[in-house]
């Protein structure tokens, strides 16, 4: 596929497809892109992966905080119950 066809097909996917389809297209045709575009795509894909990882870590941290708060509330309730 020449670069013009590659760009047109990617544009169509970006207009009508999903993010997953666009990512898969880029991965499948990565070596067909010019080197400068490959660099830009690499940075974009890496940045997306980092953002996803950060979001997962933040969600996990929040879940841990909530678990700790729940455990502390249970312990406090148990202490109060044992006083009576």
How does this structure look, described?
By secondary structure, the chain is mainly alpha-helical. The protein has helices at 3-16, 19-28, 35-83. The chain has three helices and no strands. The longest helix has 49 residues, at 35-83. The protein is rod-shaped, with a radius of gyration of 24 Å. It starts with a helix and ends with a helix.
Which geometry do the CA atoms define? Answer: rod-shaped
Number of contiguous helices: 3
Distance between the termini: 79 Å
Strand content: under 5%
Radius of gyration: 24 Å
Sequence of secondary-structure elements: HHH
**Helical content band:** over 70%
| Number of beta strands | 0
Q: Which parts are unreliable, with pLDDT below 50 for 5 consecutive residues or more?
A: none
* Biggest pleated sheet: none
- What's the average pLDDT? 93
Q: Based on helices, strands and strand pairing, what is the structural class?
A: mainly alpha
Q: What would a concise description of this structure say?
A:
With 84 residues, this protein is mostly helical. The chain is rod-shaped and about 80 Å long.
Write a concise keyword list for the protein shown above.
87% helix, rod-shaped, 84 residues, mainly alpha
Give the SSE layout:
Blueprint: H1 3-16, H2 19-28, H3 35-83
């Amino acid at each position: 596929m020449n670069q013009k066809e590659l760009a047109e097909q990617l544009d169509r996917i970006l207009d009508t497809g999903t993010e997953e389809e666009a990512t898969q297209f880029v991965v499948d045709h990565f070596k067909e892109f010019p080197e400068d575009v490959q660099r830009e795509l690499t940075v974009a894909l890496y940045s997306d992966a980092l953002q996803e990882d950060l979001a997962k870590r933040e969600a996990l941290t929040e879940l841990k905080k909530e678990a700790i708060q729940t455990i502390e509330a249970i312990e406090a309730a148990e202490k109060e119950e044992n006083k009576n």
